Batch of 2 targets.
Target 1
Amino acid sequence: MTTALSPVTAQWQELFTLYLTIGTAVGSIVIALLIYNIIRYRHKPGSPEPADAPTPGKVPADRGTIGAALILTLIVTGILFTITLGTMETVDLIEKPPEKGTMVIKVHGFQWGWKFIYPNGLETVNEVRVPRDEVIIFAVTSDDVFHKFQLIEFKIGVDAIPGKVIWIWIKPADTGEYTIQCFELCGVGHAFMTGRLIVMEPSEFESWYKG
Amino acid sequence: MEIPLNSVRRWLFTTNHKDVGILYFITSLYFLVVGGALAVLMRLQLMAPGLNILQSAPFNQAVTVHGLVMVLWFLSPLAFAFANYFVPLQIGARDLAFPRLNAMSYWFYLFGGLLAAIGFFTPGGAIDTGWTVYAPLNTAKYSPQLGVTLGGAGLLMLIASVTMSTVNFLVTIFRSRAPGMTLWRMPIYTWGILLTVFMMLFAFPSVAAGVIMLAADRLLGTLYFSSVEGGAILWDHLFWFFGHPEVYIVLVPGLVAIAEVLPVFARKPLYGKKILITALIIGSIMSFMVWAHHMFVTGIDPGFRKFMTITTETISIPFGVATLAFILTLVGASIRFTTPMLFALGGVALFIIGGITGVFNSSVALDYYLRGTYWIVAHFHYTLVGGATTGLIAALYYWWPKMTGRMFNEKLGKLHFIVYMIGFNLLYFPMHFLIDMPRRVFTYPAGMGWELPNMLATMGTIVFALSWLILFINLYQSLRKGEPAGNNPWGAWSLEWLVPSPPPRHNYDGQPVVKADGTITIQPIPANGGHHIHETHYSKWPLFISLGMFVTFLGVGLGLPVLLLGALILIGSIVGWAKEKFIAVEPAEGERWPFANVERVRLGVWTLLFGEVVLFGALIGSYIFVRINSATWPAPGEFLNPMEGAINTFILVTSSLTAILALAGAKSGNQGLLRGGLIATFILGFIFLFNKGREWSELFSHGITFSSGLPATTYYITTGAHGMHVAAGLAVLIYLIIHAFKGRITKENHAGLEGFDLYWHFVDIVWLFLFPLFYLI
Amino acid sequence: MRVVHYVAVWVGLVILVALELVVFNAGLPPAQARAGIIGLASVAALLVAVFYQHLIREPRGVALLYIAGLLAALGLIIGMVVSLGVQAGLGSF
Ligand code: HEM
Ligand SMILES: [Cu+2]
Ligand SMILES: [Cu+2]
């Protein structure tokens, strides 16, 4: 697992791990229960038929009660809603960047690449440079068809839709090169609709941005 | 028409539910092979980074046709192969309520599939937009090739097929149950099919509206999906309002197949049958309230998204309950590990895994990233293949002896199971680890850590494909030299096991009856009272009508002569159908709650109309959507004349009066009122259409065409769809008028007219809304 | 139902549609005019369904399924409209 690249990334990883833990536990228990029953109640030579075994030409008797239904439902509901609690919080985090000085970079998906427009009008294609440790907002839209702008290492992405602008934000903790890729089928060039996110030291970025 | 049983014509012209079931069975397996071959090609291409087996364009076609074919032409139709064969048997009926409609439904399904696949042989190739056909990639600007139009035409034929099936199964299950076969006593598979067709009834019209609008965009130049006010989000709504119920439409038959098989081999009754049914009912209803979880990251309103998150979490509850009911069924059992039982148990296990990954996706926070990744691919293959398909394989082995009269080889069956489980998990489990890899890419770079899972998945594909080969060999051998099966090889309780394998054409030599204590007997039909029944089992018109439709759609691509030829075949065979004397026998008595007094044709038309409500709802909804989403919109009266609309409204309302008077005339034996009413209705309907035509041509002469902005687009297409309904009504009217003048519509015999009346009033109701929506506000 | 009843319903329908035109021309504020007109249209549609389609005589199951279809359609329409809402989350930027 990568170390947290950005607050949202950390939160996502945490949440995913939580789901994975509970999901694996629940899945294992249920499948274990299934296997246990299969083995325990297998047919053994000479063992008699259950008293209420289905008989040809007779509608079987009912089995199970309303009380049982309630218990079943409660079990499932309980499990489900325990794991949802974490969710809403993270959504808020994804959608509400910290308020301080933010740079909004417009992202235009097109067949097949990404165009980035900085606040000062600077435009780049398939490569976007940002300063480390600062909140960057990507305002994502599309010039033609439906794409999805995804920052793989940051575990965040959002749909790029013509006529709509959707925001996501990151606050990169480390310098380096990261992968941008389109995650929605958009035509023959889809597989190659990739780009690079380059995180720079703020000072380096500053001189690049001005220059 | 009598036809020897071993002739080809039997299979072309049959209307018997068991024959049609077998046709569905074979065809769905054929489409499985088609979809499977495409999948193997894709997996070979993805085996390692940078391969060149399937280039980008063919890969996109393969991935699209694979998705469409597997969901719509393999999985659902396989479920309906069994539904066709066994629902009438399980409820003690002699056939479906409308046998010719059933045959036609099959042919529409087959020709629809051919239309979609024919695209491979056209210049631009087959449809390549992904099975979700997202806008605006689906528009002529970005996908001009014929293959996309053909794919849309194929979808339309499939939707028509599904609609016919829906009407047929609902009427059959509600009208043709044997005495004593109450709803609660129905076998669980029939229950599942009942819920499935209910979901189909309300889900498919939404995508039908979407495809109609898409066709208009592509062929007439309207702007639904090429404008940003409609576009991607509009399609998303129309598609997923269908799409989510659709995944349950595909899933539920698989689950109930498991529920049908488990108790037989566990030798214990299904645990909590009523609980399970209740859970499935709740799940089916809720499946219409979760569609936006496919739109979590499209920037929709957060409050709406929260609502859909909660409903998505909630909908897992019924399916969790179902899973636990399956497990509890085993408690106290004496399990026989036959092949069908192994697949049923395996299906439960795989479905658990797919259900759990679904819960991940329902978290908006996680879905921001998960959407569009291979994780999603893993999720839905565990549910659709692991759960649904595995369940249907259980059903296949379970019912095969009944359908063919022969047993299969148990050893080969068990081998199939083992290879299947290994192949499946090797194929799909590694995809969970491709959580960083996008779906639907034809290649990927090395060094991202994606090599191993991809390699494993491709190896799994080969193993998985082999497992199907074992199945086919087993079936082939069984047909050639399988042991005779006898009536009831498994010791099952339900009705189909009381008759020979395969059952005789009319199913029962007598009338099945379920007594109060649950005992099922087949009572001889009294020779004196009951006249001898002679149902018809053949008709050539279902095939010819479908062929006409197929050629007509081909003509859209190939040009006017072909189109005219198609229309000619279509009209000729509709007339042939109308004139044919076809006898379908409804049981004289039986369980019909809650539709005891709703006669067969009337119930059929009602059912159709319930779906039509959603069709027009989707069209009107699209109009409202683009209108709210548009910065400006012409004020009322600005480009349409309210007076003209009002006059047409009066005309249509009056035609409803004349139609109801004609019916009143028929019921009271007043032939004058009947004939006069029908003719007046025809004239008024005709004037309505004439006025519409004038209005359109006037608009056109002012330069307001299909592509003159969304107000024009929505007006033309919505009222155009309504106008087509009026025109179809007029066609039926001609038929009714001829019958009325031949004196065939009488006090006792006016079911057709009654059905027409319902339809005509519905068309009137729709206009009562369209008029104010387009002319006054 | 007798012929006079059907004619009476027709008269009702004609009046309702005429009233829609009256509301349309009354110069009400748009929201009120819309509500009034759609309300009148709904009453007219209800009349047709109840008396011409004979919902009044059909078993309750038919009406229930009709309503189910209507709810599905309304659910779709409302969902579509509501989803337009405001831009997710960061709309203030
Ligand atoms: C029960 C059987 C299920 C079936 C047959 C099924 C099927 C599918 C399919 C086919 C897709 C992908 C559609 C596409 O994009 O092409 C999908 C996505 C999804 N499923 Fe399921 N699913 C099932 C269960 C669940 C459950 C139990 C949940 C939630 C608790 C769930 C939640 C989701 C979500 C949220 C998505 C959208 C993910 C995304 O594309 O971002 N599913 N499902
Ligand atoms: Cu793309
Ligand atoms: Cu869904």
Target 2
Amino acid sequence: MTAAQQTAKLKLSGVKKSFGNNHVLQGIDLEIPQGKSLVVIGGSGTGKSVMLKCVLGLIAPDSGSITVDGQETTGLDAHARDKMMAKFGMLFQGGALFDSLSIWENIAFGLIQGRGMDRRQARDIAYEKIVAVGLRAEVGTLFPAELSGGMQKRVSLARAIAANPEIIFFDEPTTGLDPIMADVINELIIKTVRDLGVTALSITHDMASARKIADHVAMIYQGRIVWHGTVDALDKSGNDYVDQFIHGRAEGPITDELKTAHKAV
Amino acid sequence: MCAAIGHTIIQLFRSIGALCLFISRAVTHVFVPPYFPRLIGRQFVDIGYYSLPVVGMTALFTGMVLALQSYTGFTRFNAEGAVAAVVVLSITRELAPVLAGLMVAGRVGASIAAEIGTMRVTEQIDAMTTLSVNPLKYLVAPRLIAGTIMLPILVLIGDIIGVFGGYLVSVYNLGFSPVRYLTQTWDILEYMDVMSGLIKAAVFGFIVTAMGCYHGYNSKRGAQGVGTATTYAVVSSSILILIFNYILTQVFFS
Ligand SMILES: Nc1ncnc2c1ncn2[C@@H]1O[C@H](COP(=O)(O)OP(=O)(O)O)[C@@H](O)[C@H]1O
Ligand SMILES: [Mg+2]
């Protein structure tokens, strides 16, 4: 194995972040090899989105190290960070489409405004991506408010891949969609990751989606990664937190700790 | 008690620091390329053109009421001749810039805060950053430029409409001679009267857009966050306008 293959594409070690007394991330350790798809599962409000935003530099972590291709990203200056950003694509939880721009302008936004590409050329790429995510080309001139939730997610995906990123983050890509549309999005994610050869980090609490798109799965609980393994190992993890979560049981260590926490208050 | 006061004071200085940092970074982006002429153009229309009716109406009725009030006051001293002077000086030096500033704070400041605040809470600002576009350059700088340039233009138009309002009342209601009213207006007016009003207007335009952007940009999460940001934007820019109006008047006329 060469050295390049051994360094993880993305690596987090000991990443911590608190908002006042709310200690959201308490030392996250994660590693994703080049070209693999890691899914992080965990309940609502456990800091999954905050973790992604720390990697993207949208939120500054309090401590810890985040490396991309072996290069440290925390504490970069604005210029170096911009360069680093070009490696990332992100599908936001709520879609985060620009509602004052048409669909094709949304998808071409990073190309035109971020990279100074010619409008016409960027427009062609945008329409290519619209078709690639399974939408009709006519959608291009509509505005985000005119699309359904599922269509907005597809546009978001198109925007995230428009600039050919090396690493893509998917923040709850299937939340709020019906099961069929959710599966369509799953298929799109798998296809994107395979076709573009990107490294993917997804976040979800939808187990069907996790099983479908993951090579590796990690579970986040109380600000730490409590389990990490391949998707096949998920059912025999031997971890009580994972077992409760993947079977969606009301009884188990997660809810027990909630109850004791409530009693303490 | 002491701790509470100390905490409040520290909090105050921290907010002022954050505001100054935000403004200085945004202003840097005004001067450093790339520029976004399309966006600046759109803000000219949004901030300038669409504020014309509000500012025009305010100036018209202010000019009219000034003529009426000063006439009733001045007849007591047989000084009706001063009506034209009072109207034109009050309008150009004080009332047009301040009232236009306050009206624009309500109209433009609020809508900027709501728009940018909504973009903040729906993660559109985060999305912009991940697409390698700096939101301060793309969203804030064009608004600052448009506010600072458009408000003086609005005020200049307001000056003319305001004087015209005073003229209407004086001539058609109070029986002044049209020619004499206009000559009196023209004779009393000095370059600095108009210019000081326009400089004030530029400062007020900057204040309104900067406060709208700042509060929107730092909007707390949820619909309530956006509502609060909007209120803060209007209240803080209105108060700053009144404070800076005093400071600038002191600088110009002392
Ligand atoms: N910008 C912020 N300021 C303060 N608290 C935040 C911020 N972002 C997230 N939080 C808090 O961090 C916790 C985790 O949020 P998040 O990462 O969005 O959860 P999820 O795992 O559902 O994505 C929540 O308690 C949330 O209130
Ligand atoms: Mg989340």
